[in-house]
Design goal:
Oligomer: homodimer
Radius of gyration of chain A: 27 Å
Number of helices of chain A: 15
Shape of chain A: elongated
Helix content of chain A: 40-55%
Keywords (chains A, B): ATP-binding, Magnesium, Metal-binding, Nucleotide-binding, Nucleotidyltransferase, RNA repair, RNA-binding, Transferase, tRNA processing
Cofactor (chains A, B): Mg(2+)
Largest sheet of chain A: 5 strands, mixed
GO molecular function (chains A, B): ATP binding; CCA tRNA nucleotidyltransferase activity; CCACCA tRNA nucleotidyltransferase activity; magnesium ion binding; tRNA binding
Enzyme class (chains A, B): transferase
Organism (chains A, B): Methanothrix soehngenii (strain ATCC 5969 / DSM 3671 / JCM 10134 / NBRC 103675 / OCM 69 / GP-6) (Methanosaeta concilii)
Structural class of chain A: alpha+beta
Order of helices and strands of chain A: HHEHEHEEEHHHHEEEHHEHEEEHEEHHEH
Chain lengths: ~425, ~425
């Protein structure tokens, strides 16, 4: 088991060599330009807590507080001529070097982690803290990381909303072993507060608070969603009860064939609606939150009009954005109620009646209000979505992308989407099976 | 107009004669038997506020407080050999005499209306109060009664939930004329309090309080529903704005033909569900409240399972009971969600998962709870109703009646019910048009 997650001596040696090389190159270039700059390996590579096959190198380029990050960025560009520029709070350089994914991140060298100029400035403090405490616990970190990966809650980016590497390390330091973390997590409930150094008090309205030992006003688990937190808790319980390698290495989902998909859909008897459009050219950490917001807006539209949603999900792959709404009730009568003002508001009543001169039924009085029954504009969910979609405010990026072109698939039509990524997504969506017993 | 509602001199003379005759007969019989008994004409006939064609005579047989009502009842039976016995709080005799509907009601003669032995004992006080105040206002009472009748809110029995004759008389005495009652009612809102004698304070949680001048702790309008009260208010406004005889004498509804019914149903695109059974042999004032309760129970069942109801209504005619549920959404997917306990309730979760071993999807975690998706038992409203009806507690009378036999009609099948009464009900139901503009 451990052999599958622990990098081999050869892998470690390669990582060490490459990182040393890159750091040497940075220092040489800085010296040439007379810059005060400190290059440092941070993250899991620095802490010996990286998973085999995870070939990520985070190298920070620290400059004094009073200098300018742009010079460091300039230098990072020179280190890796083949690179792309990415943006978090500040720009940084991403490059592939000898099969490693290398991030070269400019940051400020500050004295006190609670007085940062930028969020990345905190990372060196994290590395220092973990390095001082982690000795002997590295394997437990690897096991926990792989466990979280296996159950689908590893990664604090917004798409996942799971556990960051730093959070994993803190949990292992706190509870002293992989099984002890699981035992503790088994009992978690919302509003759990953990603190390695202090007395621990809830900082914000987040389900799990883990006080950052280098900055006590920060919650390391701020990005963790309630459901991912509790999935880990339930999976921990299940694993302790019936341990299995499958938690770490679940069977990979195969793309659904037409026949399989058809059979699953028949059994469910639902009406899947898919909205597909070209994804705007933004990173996942921007795209997914926007898609989630749009998902909520469309859910609200459908629900407000009386259609019932069983479940929904979103997916971005390649240049595509897909939003799936699985309808539990998708057709309604033509006739619907329009509830007007209270009867005693004479002017409002008069105006309401003037606007509804020829109802199917009514006007009548119900619970103190004037009511008419008339024809609804759209009596099936697909028509409603098609008609109202462009009128929804779905955020600038998505609204534009949808206006440029989109397609709605309903029922069996969704099988016209044959992409492997989509069919795997569909398999996972239909399973929706978390590793809990 | 007035000539249509005001009894002719000949009609009045007949009523006077007949009531005098009956009272004389009662007094004679009482004398023969040595009973202390006071026979009196009460109600609208006594007050000259009866509508032409309304041939109702209420004659009370008052006996001293310390005697027994059963003797008076015995006597009432002798007065009208052809009669039926009815029950309110106590039994009374109902008979047809020369084209009049005569109620012979035993009651106690009490000194103070606030210290009654039975609700009917209050009536003589009402008659005395009204007789002392109504002189010159009789025509206004007749107009208001006919207006209320025309808009469908006259009658305080439980089926109607409208205005009693006594309430009408009090309103006219308070506001001094028919148009002034309408003008005042135009401005009514819930929690209106009227008091002819005192300062008027709300007695109970009823939308309109009219303090009974002969018993200040009683609300004369207690039976009036919010919607009937406000319908009168809105119709008053509409009538004052555009007076029309139609308010008093609306066009009678014709029974719907198959073709008309079909056309109306097509336009609505709803799914009517009708539950029909033999009405239990109880009076309307018992039957209707029970049917309304059963209507609520069935609405709750359908709604709880995700089906949408546009409107519902009930009807009793001859020996039949009919409950109509017009469905706005009547078909759902096979798949449905079952939401389990919060994740941290380990034992409950384990039990929940054991009970749902092979879901269509899941288990997964949603908003802190374990969720599975499985097949619902009934995915259309008709099947649900058919399967669960006998398990609902619909009150003793109705539950038994339904168990003895019932039929469910769905969609076009409802046209198999060809009774004239039902087809008129259907026409009124589909119109649902209150006289408000």
């Amino acid at each position: 088991m451990l052999s599958q997650v622990r990098p081999s001596p050869k892998e470690r040696e390669r990582l060490r060599l490459i990182s040393r090389e890159i750091i040497a190159k940075i220092e040489r270039l800085a010296e040439e330009r007379g810059m005060v700059l400190q290059a440092m390996l941070v993250g899991s590579a620095a802490r010996d807590t990286w998973l085999a096959q995870d070939h990520d190198l985070d190298i920070f380029l620290g400059v004094p507080e009073n200098s300018d990050l742009s010079e460091a960025m300039e230098l990072a560009r020179l280190v890796a001529p083949e690179h792309e520029e990415r943006y978090a709070e500040h720009p940084y350089v991403h490059a592939r070097v000898d099969g490693f994914e290398v991030d070269l991140v400019p940051c400020y060298l500050v004295d006190d982690a609670s007085r940062l100029k930028s969020a990345v400035d905190r990372t060196p403090f994290h590395t220092r803290y973990i390095k001082g405490k982690i000795a002997g616990l590295e394997d437990d970190v690897l096991l926990l990381k792989q466990f979280l990966k296996g159950i689908g809650v590893y990664g604090s980016e917004l798409k996942t909303g799971g556990f960051s590497g730093y959070l994993v390390e803190l949990l292992v330091i706190l509870y002293r072993s992989f099984p002890d973390v699981l035992r503790a997590a088994s009992h978690w409930r919302p509003d759990t507060v953990l603190d390695l150094e202090g007395e621990g008090k809830k900082l914000h309205d987040e389900p799990l608070t883990v006080v950052d030992p280098v900055d006590p006003n920060r919650n390391v688990a701020a990005a963790l969603t309630l459901d991912k937190m509790l999935l880990f808790s339930a999976a921990s319980r299940s694993f302790l009860d019936r341990p299995s390698l499958e938690f770490f290495f679940p069977r990979e989902d195969e793309p659904l064939s037409d026949e399989e998909a058809q059979a699953r859909m028949d059994a469910r008897g639902t009406m899947p609606l898919i909205l597909q459009f070209q994804a705007p050219d933004v990173v996942e950490d921007v795209l997914y939150p926007q898609m989630r917001k749009a998902e909520e807006s469309i859910r609200a539209l459908l629900t407000r009009k009386g259609f019932l949603i069983l479940r929904s999900d979103v997916l971005a792959y390649r240049d595509r954005a897909v939003m799936l709404f699985e309808m539990e009730g998708w057709e309604l009568s033509r006739a619907c109620r329009r509830t007007g003002p209270p009867v005693w508001e004479a002017e409002h009543v008069a105006r309401f009646l003037a606007v509804h001169p020829h109802p199917l039924s009514g006007p009548y009085i119900k619970e103190g209000r004037v009511v008419v029954e008339e024809s609804r504009k759209h009596n099936c969910a697909r028509d409603l979505l098609a008609a109202e979609l462009e009128g929804l405010s779905l955020g600038k990026h998505l609204s534009e992308a949808i206006r440029r072109g989109h397609k709605i698939y309903a029922g069996q039509e969704i099988l016209e989407i044959r992409d492997r990524e989509f069919r795997i997504f569909l398999a996972q969506y239909l399973d929706a099976r978390a590793p809990i017993y």
